[in-house]
Amino acid sequence: MNVDRNAVSGLNLQLSIDGVLSFQLLATEDGALSRLGPLAGQGRAQVEVNDDNVLVTGRADPALFAALRDALPSVLLEHVGTWVHPDIRGHACDLSVLLQTPGATVGIHYRYGSDSQGPPADIMDFVRRCVVSTEDWAAARAAASPEPGPQG
């Protein structure tokens, strides 16, 4: 299956480690953005299971989505389905990348271990790009949000 890059109107990227959602990015071409994960400056070199994940939602410049769409590796546009490593070692990792197109959502899912071979390098480079390119937006959005008050 080939997906026309320019027809992609939404992106849903999820990484779960040992069954815990560690990072999620939902982005649409109109600028809607939702990001769950660690914020820049938390001292995290990579996405990992932690209690410091922050959920931020809002609107970003649509150019951010356009840049992510332009960076989609060809494997995401040409293949769909699931790949499971036959010998999962370390923490169980599940990475899904779903693309919204007119009339269909297509995607790819990888299940691998933190100590086994993971997805191809171009997929992991794209995941890192998604994390890094949304860090400043998420940090600014989180800083602008009021602290939750006491319930009652």
Structure, explained:
- The protein is an alpha+beta fold.
- The protein has a single domain (5-144), classed as Mago nashi protein.
- The protein is 25% helix and 35% strand.
- The protein has three helices and seven strands, in the order E-E-E-E-H-H-E-E-E-H.
- It has a seven-stranded mixed beta sheet with strand order 4-3-2-1-6-7-5, covered by helices on one side.
- A hairpin with a 2-residue loop joins strand 1 and strand 2 (20-28).
- The model is unreliable at 42-49 (pLDDT under 50).
Keywords:
7-stranded mixed sheet, Mago nashi protein, alpha+beta, 152 residues
Question: Could you give the topology of this structure?
Answer:
Elements: E1 10-17, E2 20-28, E3 32-37, E4 54-59, H1 62-70, H2 74-78, E5 81-84, E6 92-101, E7 104-113, H3 121-144
Parallel strand pairs: 5-7
Antiparallel strand pairs: 1-2, 1-6, 2-3, 3-4, 6-7
Organism: Roseateles amylovorans
Protein name: DUF1795 domain-containing protein
How far from one another are the termini? 52 Å
The amount of beta strand, in percent, is 25-35%
* Order of helix and strand elements from N to C terminus: EEEEHHEEEH
Number of helical segments with 4 or more residues: 3
Give me the oligomer status.
single chain
Radius of gyration: 16 Å
CATH class: Alpha Beta
Mean pLDDT: 87
Strand order across the largest sheet: 4-3-2-1-6-7-5
Number of strands: 7
Estimated helix fraction: 25-40%
* Low-pLDDT residue spans: 42-49
CATH arch. level architecture: 2-Layer Sandwich
Biggest sheet layout: 7 strands, mixed
Instruction: Tell me the CATH topology.
Output: Mago nashi protein
Number of domains: 1
Structural class: alpha+beta
Shape descriptor reads globular
